[in-house]
Amino acid sequence: MPLTVDQPYNVYREQLSSLYHGTALWEPNPMIRHYERVSIGDVGYVHEGFFYRMFNVTLPWNDPSNATIGVPEQYKTLVSDPFTNIREATLDKGEYYSRHGRVSKEDSGVRAAGPDEGVAYKSRGQGALLFLPYDGHRSDVIRTKVFEDYIRDNVVTWFNWARNKGMGVERMEDLILVSGCTFVTSWAAAAFVDSAVEAEISLTVQPFNNGGAHYTWSKIHNMVAHHNSHSNPNPPWNQCVFIRGFRAKRVFLWTRLRAAAEPLPDDPYNRRDDEILVTGVPDAPKYCDPLIGVLNYIAEKCPEDCAEDTIAIAHDDDLQLIENVENMTASTVKSYLHERDIPVLIENGAAILHEDDPPVPEEAKAIFFASAELGGEPVPLVVHPVLAKYLLRLEFSNPDDHDYDLPKEETTSPAVAPPMLSLLLENHQGYPQAIRIQPSDDSPGIGVTVQDVLRTLHEDLKKSLPRRQLGRLSDEERVIVNDSFKERCTTEEDLSKGPCRFDHLGVRNRLQILPKYPIDDESLLPTMLFPVESFDDSKAAGPSRIR
Q1: What pTM, to 2 d.p., does this model score?
Q2: How confident is the model at residue 98 (pLDDT cuts 50, 70, 90)?
Q3: What CA–CA distance (Å, rounded) separates 50 from 9?
Q4: Biggest CA-to-CA distance, the chain
Q5: Is 164 a member of any domain?
Q6: Same domain flag for 332 and 431
Q7: Which of 138-142, 321-325, 512-516 comes out lowest in average pLDDT?
Q8: 546 domain-assigned
Q9: What is the pLDDT of residue 438?
Q10: Is residue 325 predicted with pLDDT exceeding 50?
Q11: Do 392 and 490 sit in the same domain of this protein?
Q12: Can you list the alpha helix ranges (DSSP code H) found in 341-449?
């Protein structure tokens, strides 16, 4: 029998983790005296179903909103990149209940004053319910690598600051760097808290025209905690039902040695010998939610050559690896990962779960660079990560599809920053012939977009390949191309097909800017530029999490 967690906010948080929407907040209301609503970049922790925001790292450290519970230590503001980095989505209205629990629904026989009928929810053991009369709004960071690096570099400072301020944060892994939120205007929530008996509750809902609702609970049998938002006919969009983010903890040698010796319960503390253990704080968060199971697994799995100051990092999305687990607890999550021996990647002082990407054929790799000339000197520009850093898995089966299953926020972003009116794709020697890329009618006023680049490449790949151009490549490039062609292309017809031509395109890896000025005022160029790394195939490859 699983351990009974008798606090409704813990049962609710644990049971709804199986839906993979993130951490479920039993209390979606913001703490108005401290913040108006949860935001991406918030650093805080969850206690008794509330999210306690400490500060937001996308704002300057001395921003007035960061001083509501104490001025944080001075930090470097988290800036992801100049491109759109937020994905917007909808959470459909309706009921959400623990997938692996025993919650069921049926007509309760209860009617409201209007035509609305009540629904009875039953649970044989612990379970949770979230009901939404209207669609919710979800926002998530697309490229999370910068958030991962940021929590690695700063979580120790945050933990020490929170402890010194008496926040009641006993464990480092309770701190959350928020990378996504889901907001609704109205909600109702219930938690079936007893793991040993069947419980039941009925809910009748009368939605208002302007976003609120009136809820009536009835026919409550056994231990069911329930509550709902206020009956506000025009409520604000500040009710956060799910948050997603990063957590971190230190990796210690003794943790790995202990794990190798025998399985023990999750360690409630995460400290060095010289750290002061906070005790006797009544509001200290001590509950281990499922994501802490991921962190504990990473800490135990970390290779022996892992440095003493390595930081284990997990994200709510990591729980998507967990399948067919009836009770999503920290212990069951850790056991599941151990049984499947999920690999752990050690990279730049961080340890994360690592599932290898499926093999990407060489013809589907493209790495791009961009530069402009200003005053006769080449100046690096920021290339959109889809072009500069990610592996492009281009499929040519559909000639009219130029988004390649990428989010709209990515494809409609400018290809480079600052935006440019025209690009030339060429290699470092100017061969083969450059490809000119112009803005399409779909993107007026923002210059060449990512989709413009992909569309142009797609069209170029459909053209036949003149054999004479192979002779214009360098010996090294020609060997690579010819070796690749021997495996896949044997006839003129084969050479004209897209997948065979990507090797030829691959040597064109530089986006030159024409005209050599951004759309905006030329004087803005120096202030908008960032250093551009040199990406090669080995750096581009990485774990399956979108980073």
Answers
A1: 0.76
A2: confident
A3: 9
A4: 83
A5: yes
A6: no
A7: 512-516
A8: no
A9: 86
A10: yes
A11: yes
A12: 385-388, 408-411
pLDDT mean over 117-137: 90
176-180, 286-290, 528-532: segment of lowest average pLDDT: 528-532
Identify residue 242 by its one-letter amino acid code: F
Other CB atoms within a 10 A radius of the CB of residue 448 amount to: 24
- In this structure, is residue 3 part of a structural domain? no
Q: Can you tell me the distance from the alpha carbon of 139 to that of 150, in angstroms, rounded to the nearest whole number?
A: 19
171 and 252 in a single domain? The answer is no
Residue given tokens 């999370």 in the structure block:
144
Residue 88, beta-bridge partner list: 139
449 pLDDT higher than 60: yes
The boundaries of the domain holding residue 398 are 362-540
Residue with tokens 């809910």: 203
For Cα atoms 54, 60, 66, give the angle at the middle one, nearest 5 degrees.
25
**Across 301-315, 469-483, 530-544, least confident range:** 530-544
130 bridge partner residues: 96, 189
Question: Could you tell me if 475 and 502 lie in one domain?
Answer: yes
Residue type at 123 in one-letter notation:
S
Tell me the pLDDT band of 486, cut-offs 50, 70 and 90: very low
Q: What is the mean pLDDT of residues 467-481?
A: 43
| CA–CA separation, 71 and 63 (whole Å) | 9
Count structural domains, the chain: 3
Q: Confidence band (pLDDT; 50, 70, 90) for 456? A: confident
What is the Cα–Cα distance from 467 to 1, expressed in whole angstroms?
71
Distances (CA, A) of 494 to 45, 392, 459, 482, 487: 58, 22, 16, 14, 11
Residue 399: what pLDDT? 52
Asked if residues 174 and 266 have their Cβ atoms less than 8 Å apart, the reply is no
Separation CA 432–CA 490 (nearest Å): 21
230 and 275 fall within a common domain: no
Of the candidates 519, 517, 512, 516, the one whose C-alpha atom is nearest the C-alpha of residue 436 is 512
Q: Are residues 169 and 236 in the same domain?
A: yes
The model's pLDDT over 273-282, given as tens digits with 9 standing for 90+, comes to 333 233 333 3
In a domain, 2, yes or no: no
- Average pLDDT over the chain reads 75
CA dist 147 and 122 (Å) reads 40
Residue 508 pLDDT class (50, 70, 90 cuts): low
Nearest to 137 by CA among 86, 74, 90, 68: 90
Task: Give yes or no: residues 314 and 225 share one domain.
Answer: no
Interacting residues of 91 by C-beta distance below 8 A, sequence separation 6+: 21, 132, 135, 136, 137, 138, 182, 184, 241, 242
Name the domain boundary from 353, 382, 401.
353
Identify whether residues 284 and 424 lie together within a single domain.
no
Rounded CA separation 162/275 (Å): 14
| Domain end among 208, 227, 244 | 244
